[in-house]
Amino acid sequence: MRTQVAIIGAGPAGLMLGRLLQLAGIEAVILERKSGEYVLSRIRAGVLEQGTADLLRKVNIGARVEAEGLPHDGIEMCFDGDLQRIDFMARVGRRVTVYGQTEMTHDLMEARKASGATTIYEAADVALHDIDSDRPRVTWRKDGVTHTLECDFIAGCDGFHGVSRASVPERSLTLFDRHYPFGWLGILVDQPPVSEELIYAHHERGFALCSMRSMTRSRYYVQVAEGEKIENWSDQRFWDELRRRINPDAAERMKIGPSIEKSIAPLRSFVAEPLRFGSLFLAGDAAHIVPPTGAKGLNLAISDVVMLGDALTEFYGERSKAGLDAYSGKALLRIWKAERFSWWMTSLLHTFPETGAFGRRIQRADFDYLCGSVAAQTSLAENYTGLSLG
Question: pTM here?
């Protein structure tokens, strides 16, 4: 079996790259170790930058995001009960759209299925071969049979724990990693959101976030200590803690109910450099992780594959390797800017036990500066709604 590009991973990054290549007339096969149903069962956040939402329309899968997505022109920031709205439209003329990552993945899967393009789910023991040559191969097992896919290039879009980055010799990668001493305990509830826009809150007891999936389904988070167990958190304990940390008016009008999903996510910052090794290109969570505070993870993965898709289109259309050679450096420039913004949002809004009273005073000064500075609000709006790909 042969194709031009082998894509490892059928999450939003791999599926979007497949869509971009298909529209450019480039053959690609996607390999995914899990079933399609499992991929769609993964609950992930979904705040789309302006550019990501526009891209869905550009690749002709924008109907549902247009009909069901929730455009947001700003966010609310809260510090010990004090509120400040950041008006994205007033500051930078852009907005974000709340649209679940699962929904976006569903749209991409349906479009790929309708097109007849090849996606192989439940591909076991995927292995990459000869990635340092111009004739790489991918092997996998399915239904007890071993298969081989020959290709020109491999795109590793299979996440942090995937085989793609693990296939690069250790000496050829530099890893930058930071673990945060806390996690996010999140619940999903079938109740209308407490606010029309997201509320990010800092409190002496820890961070809180009021988000949503729709106008009838809400997603809420509170900061918990590293190693905390879900079984220690009843729904009632969660609601009591959340309402302590947000603005009193919001706490008063919040509608609570039984959780339909509850989980704890650790926070980390991670980047692997470079993003290319021979014929293998890394994209999305295979290359980087950001704390969810700045809503960058999904959007950063999409910007990676847009750059990679453009580079592959240039190669096959013009026989030029310039874009492929530049991909890693160009993508990393944007990745590190997103890492910086996510780190800054995390640093402002969470409690860090080691920084003590001095650290909280600095956080308060940062919040007060944000409230009083148009320049600071513009910087936040510019980063949150999405930097350019240039």
Answer: 0.94
